[in-house]
UniProtKB/TrEMBL annotation:
Gene3D superfamilies, per database record: Rieske [2Fe-2S] iron-sulphur domain
Protein name, as recorded: Rieske (2Fe-2S) protein
UniProt KW keywords: 2Fe-2S, Iron, Iron-sulfur, Metal-binding
Organism of this sequence: Bradyrhizobium ontarionense
Pfam families: Rieske
Domain Rieske: 4-115
Length: 138
């Protein structure tokens, strides 16, 4: 497993969503009331971009004529065919035995805890001489 910084926390406030590309995969990120979720942005059923789906709850019933929406904000409904997935796990509720949406660990970390990468851009000294900007190369 590798770690990737995908955005700053203020770019994903509660109630928002966005996508990020990581290692050639498009990841859909959700912030639902401060809970962060990351899912592969492709519905396993029809291939829809799942990031445009509806965040919702799930209908529960104890019998005919009795139904209620529970666990609001814990499920994502595919925009194409309405398949529902649990945001925290990617578990399908339409075909739980064989279908799942890949989920990824996601968390908020302070910038000071991130490790610098090994890549450093080449830099050149810059000076101002008599109102001209001068770049020095070696």
């Amino acid at each position: 497993m590798s770690r990737h910084v995908v955005c700053s926390a203020d770019e994903l406030p509660p109630g928002s969503r966005r996508t990020a590309f990581v290692d050639g995969r498009e990841i859909a990120l959700f912030n639902v009331d401060g809970r962060l979720h990351a899912l592969l942005n492709r519905c396993p059923h029809g291939g829809a971009r799942i990031c445009t789906g509806v965040v919702t709850g799930i209908a529960q019933s104890s019998g005919p004529g009795d139904y209620r929406l529970e666990r609001h904000g814990e499920f994502l409904r595919c925009p194409w065919h309405g398949w529902e997935f649990e945001l925290a796990t990617g578990q399908s509720w339409c075909d739980p035995r064989t279908t799942r949406l890949r989920s990824y660990d996601v968390k908020r970390e302070p910038g000071a805890s991130l490790v610098k990468g090994p890549y450093v851009a080449e830099r050149f000294p810059v000076v101002i001489e008599n109102d001209y900007v001068v770049v020095e190369t070696r």
